[in-house]
Amino acid sequence: MELTDADLVARVLVDDDQHAFGELVRRHQSAVRGLLRQLTRTDVALADDLAQQTFLRAYKNIRSFRGEARFSTWLYRIAYNCFREDARRRKELVGIDEEQLQTQHDPQVANPGLRHDLMRALNLLPLNERSAVLLCCQNGLSHDEAARVLDIPLGTVKTNVLRGREKLKRMLADWGPN
Amino acid sequence: MNQVNQEDWLDRELREAAPYIDDEGFTARVLQQLPPPRRGHDLLRAAILLGMTFLASALAYVVSGGGRFVSVTLERLAVLPALWILVLALVSGLVIAAVGATAAISRERGLQT
């Protein structure tokens, strides 16, 4: 019988079982790294560094996981905080912000496929809409769970998802069903 | 209807745009960076328990006049009827099983919470 996330967390808490924590990392690494790759606009190296930070922070703070939300939701929240802290630090260090990053993307780049266009369209969304769309539409979180991860009101999440989707639909109108 | 189809199409594409990322040593790298497990605490706890057990045993031996109560108890048991010994063994077994089951249940509850 396969152990649930809650069982594995309990083993880490009671016995400091690092094998159990390893199993949790194996289970969730793809989702966490995937989310961070999208948030960092496919900067794979940075995303993996942040993912490592996320899991290390999760291990150190595992006693604060109360089991009220899914373990994956708790991890997403840590990942998002790591991303935000890093973005703030980078902005302070080199003066790069979201708006500047958006203009770095050349809209004239050849786009051979829908996937490429979708990625580009996602990257053009403002961070608040991109995060909400990624969490709700791509990672399957409910609006309520996304609100917890992003630490914003539920209504704001709904608005951001709606706006993000509208923008994506407009940008990808040529690919959509007629 | 068209709106619904378009939303479904967008959701599907978004989900498919997030393929599974192979581990490729990621988990191992994370585990390497974890702080060492709390083995020290476990060893200390075991040492304290063992020390207390030895101390209590030594104290009981001295207080009881060189463990005389053991030989007295054995002598008393030897003169008991066989049925009494059987009942005594059964009751002792049940008590030990109950204590073990209680400990196992409380540990399981601890893991769940």
Average pLDDT of chain B, rounded to a whole number, is: 83
- How much β-strand is present in the residues of chain B? under 5%
How many domains of chain A? The number is: 2
Number of strands of chain A: 0
| Beta strands of chain B, count | 0
Largest interface: A-B, 41 and 32 residues
CATH superfamily grouping of the largest domain in chain A: RNA polymerase sigma factor, region 2, helix turn helix motif
* Major β-sheet profile of chain A: none
CATH second-level architecture of the largest domain in chain A? Orthogonal Bundle
CATH level-3 fold name of the largest domain in chain A: Rna Polymerase Sigma Factor, Chain: A
- Fraction in helix of chain B: over 70%
Structural class of chain A: mainly alpha
What integer value in Å does the Rg of chain B equal? 31 Å
Terminal CA distance of chain B = 47 Å
Question: What are the secondary-structure elements of chain B, in order, as H or E?
Answer: HHHHH
Which oligomeric state applies?
heterodimer
Describe it for me?
- The complex is a heterodimer of chains A (178) and B (113).
- Chain A has 2 domains: 1-96, Rna Polymerase Sigma Factor, Chain: A; 109-178, Winged helix-like DNA-binding domain superfamily/Winged helix DNA-binding domain (Arc Repressor Mutant, subunit A), CATH 1.10.10.10.
- Helix content of chain A is 73%, strand content 0%.
- Chain A has helices at residues 5-15, 18-39, 44-60, 71-94, 98-104, 114-124, 127-138, 143-150, 154-171.
- At the A-B interface, α1, α2, α3, α6 and α7 of A face α1, α2 and α5 of B.
